[in-house]
Each structure stands twice: as structure tokens, then as C-alpha cells.
Amino acid sequence: MDMDGLILRLFDIQAVKFGSFKLKSGITSPIYLDLRVIVSFPDVLAAVAALMWERVKDLQWDHLCGVPYTALPIATVIAVQQSRSMVMRRKEKKEYGTSVLVEGRYTAGQTVLIVEDIITSGASILETAQDLRAAGLQPLHSIVMINREQGGQANIEASGCSVHSVLTLSQVLECLERHQRLEPAVVGQVRQFLAANAQVAVPASPLPPPRPKALPFAQRAALCPNPVGRRLFEIMEQKKSNLSFNPDVTKKAEILRLTDLVGPSICMLKTHIDVVEDFDWDLVEQLRALAVKHNFVIFEDRKFADIGNTVQLQFTSGVYRIAEWADIVNAHLVPGPGIIDGLRQGAKAAGRDIGLLLLAEMSSKGNLATGAYTEANVKAALEHPDFVIGFIAMQGLAPAHPNLMYITPGVQLAKGGDALGQQYDTPEAVVGRKGSDIIQVGRGIFGAADPAAEAEKYRVAAWEAYQARVQATA
């Protein structure tokens, strides 16, 4: 599809309209460009993506980012057709759920090409650029399909982001006039409008809310109503450690050996007690003794996920009698909030202070712990602050509630993944950028030649990321 063919096709599918239209900038225009409709016309969407790519293929950048929502399909087609990485800016934050506005895998300092359909004042690109910068990215370039020639390019480039366009509004008019699709009077009216509105100011917008202050763990301890959560915050501050270790092996002797080696560096030990082939009660007693010796809490990663009565029995009965020795347990919220009540009753029956973590997000590829499910976990935690101490999550979810803590699995000193879908991120990214509190490490430590030394590396990396986060919002 050549340029004239595309313009005529846009006119035929009513992506270019004439009449009286109020624009985002507040002015009333005799022409309206509505590229939302191209998602229903694959040939047009493909042609738009191809022409936009042709304009920017020689530029240097790390990620694409489509302005929500109209440009998202265009950016996606470009990313897929050209095998280029894409990040996604959410248009709004939700009251509950993830507080991250820019989704995807990226690192601070990487550059971005912003994709947009139309620019008038440039406000949408400027808003997107602002959120990208807040996430640590650099919006260097932008590509637009049609430039309305009303000052948007100058406004955007004044912010340090270059603008590249496929078409101008004048070119669209010239083509439609040449092919006799418009009456001369309409063409004259639009040109008169463009001459009178050659510079549209960017609409004033409220300043973004300040980044919530990241309180030190010692201050958050005082805000935590659950004794175990409070104690864990205190341990983290005392040991200068926000590292949790998972000795995910199947032999009692190896679990105890590894725990004793890394104990000085950790604030929490995570167990999978049902994988231990030679489990006995002596293992539990020795782990409890090591917890006292090295000052850490024990988190049994049982992931309860049944109705309240069943999980209460699973928690208190059977071979493992988890409620008698674990300081912290976790649960999926799939059965509903009754699971919280069942576990709370189990803790009461055991006569012990126990904290519950809700499994709000997971680190495995393709997992379903997202969106409304994550939001429901946050809501449930806020309704049960005396028992729910936080979340298994990939980031901070409710920064306005510092009594809640976040434990993030899938952390290694270098990003990567494994053959079973586990995805890894770094301590700096998880704690520093995404707002988590505790990193959960297993194979990265027990698979090392010197587990104790490796655990100390993780402790230092996570603690420095935490200190940087606190200082950044002080």
C-alpha cells in the first residue's frame, strides 16, 4: 500500500472525519483523525506499522512503548514483525494491585522509542515520557503516524525527545483534494483552521503524587500489629539482612548443614517440608534451634489453597503439624477469605503467634496470579492486619500501608531463567526499583561452591538496594 493508497483507505474507513470535533487540547477542529478504527482493518494496521517502522529503523533504542490506548496495537505489530522489545505504560494506577506504571522487562538507563498515532499538542507523548522517566527509562525518540502541525513536535522536542512522523495533516488534505474526495470549501476551512491554530499549548495537568516515603524497617516494625511480622522487621534491622534462604534439597542432613552455613546472613529460612525424604521431628527441633542461634524466622512455604476447615486440619494435623513450629505460612486466596479464618483458627489452636503471607503474585512464566486476583489479595490483607503480614509478590503492592511486607522469589545476582519457566530478577531491581522488601534465594546460594560466601553477597546486594530506596524518598 503506497502513501496515497493508505490515505484514501483511512478516509474510506472513516479514520479521517470532517465536521466539528473537540480535541484533547480543548480546541474545536473541523477535522478529526480517529486511528482507533484501524484495529478492525488488518491491512491498514499492517501498512501503518510498516510505514512507521521505515521511518525509525535506523535509530538506536532498546524498547518500544505505545501510548495507551490507540497506539498499543501499532506498537505491538511493530514489535512482533521486527522482533523488537516492548514495554507497556499503563494509563492509570488502580487503588489496589500493582503500583508499577511501566510493565515489561527492562533496566534503568535503557532507551525507549515512543509510538503514537496522532500528535496535536504532544500532551500524550509527554505524559508517557514522564512515566518512563519515573521508571528509570530514557525516552529518546517518538514516531507518529500523522502530525497535525499544531505545535506538538516543538513541545515534545523541547523535552529532549525527538519526533519522527510518517504524514502531516497538510499531506492528508492534499491527497484527498487531489483525488477529489473533498469539496474545495472543506479543504479551505481546514487550512484556515490550521493557520489559526499553529501552536496548541500542552494542557496543564496536576503534578504526579509524590513517591511514598520508604520507611526504615525499624519504623515499620512499630506499625505492624502482628507479633511475628513485627519481629521479622526487627530482625532485618538488627542483622542488616533482607535475605530469605530456601535450602530446597531433600535430605535432612543437607538442610541442616546449609542452614547453619548461611544462618548468619539471613533474616528468614523458607522450607518445603514435604519434600524431605527422611523427615522426622528431630529435623524440626534442630531447625528451631538454628533459628534461635542465628536469629531468623522460619517460613513454611506450604501454599495452602483449600476451604477453611480443610486448611485448618492441614495446618495443625498430619505428619508435619506445621502450626507447632512454623513462624510464617502462606496461602492462595483462590478459595476466598475463608482460608484466612481457617488458618487463623489453626494458629489459635496451636497457641502460637504466626504470620500469614498471601500469594498475590508469582515469578513463573505464564502464571495466573495477576490483575483482579492480585487486587483481591491486597484487599483481604487490609481487612486482616492482625494476621496477614504481607505478600509473596514481585513488587510492592500497597505502599500506603508500610505494616505490610513483600517477599519476592526468583532472585539471582544476574537476570535470567530456567527450563521450567522460572524467571529471575536482580536484588537491585526487586528491592530498589520494584519496592519489594525481602528477596527469596534458593539455588543461587545452595548451588554455589561456597554457600556461606554467596549468601553474604546476596545479603549485601539486597541491603544496599533497600538503603538506596529509603534514601531516595527521605
From TrEMBL:
Entry-linked SUPFAM superfamilies: PRTase-like, Ribulose-phoshate binding barrel
SMART domains, sorted: OMPdecase
Active site: 301 (for ompdecase activity), 303 (for ompdecase activity), 306 (for ompdecase activity)
Domain of life: Eukaryota
EC number: 2.4.2.10, 4.1.1.23
Domain Orotidine 5'-phosphate decarboxylase: 248-458
Keywords: Decarboxylase, Glycosyltransferase, Lyase, Multifunctional enzyme, Pyrimidine biosynthesis, Transferase
Binding-site list for substrate: 248, 270, 363, 422, 442-443
InterPro entries membership: Aldolase_TIM (IPR013785), OMPdecase (IPR014732), OMPdecase_AS (IPR018089), OMPdeCOase_dom (IPR001754), OPRT (IPR023031), Or_phspho_trans_dom (IPR004467), PRTase-like (IPR029057), PRTase_dom (IPR000836)
GO molecular function: orotate phosphoribosyltransferase activity; orotidine-5'-phosphate decarboxylase activity
Cell membrane is among the record's keywords: no
Any single GO BP term: 'de novo' pyrimidine nucleobase biosynthetic process
Pathway: Pyrimidine metabolism; UMP biosynthesis via de novo pathway; UMP from orotate: step 1/2; Pyrimidine metabolism; UMP biosynthesis via de novo pathway; UMP from orotate: step 2/2
Any coiled-coil regions, as ranges: none
A Pfam family hit: OMPdecase
Family: In the N-terminal section; belongs to the purine/pyrimidine phosphoribosyltransferase family.
Name of this protein: Uridine 5'-monophosphate synthase
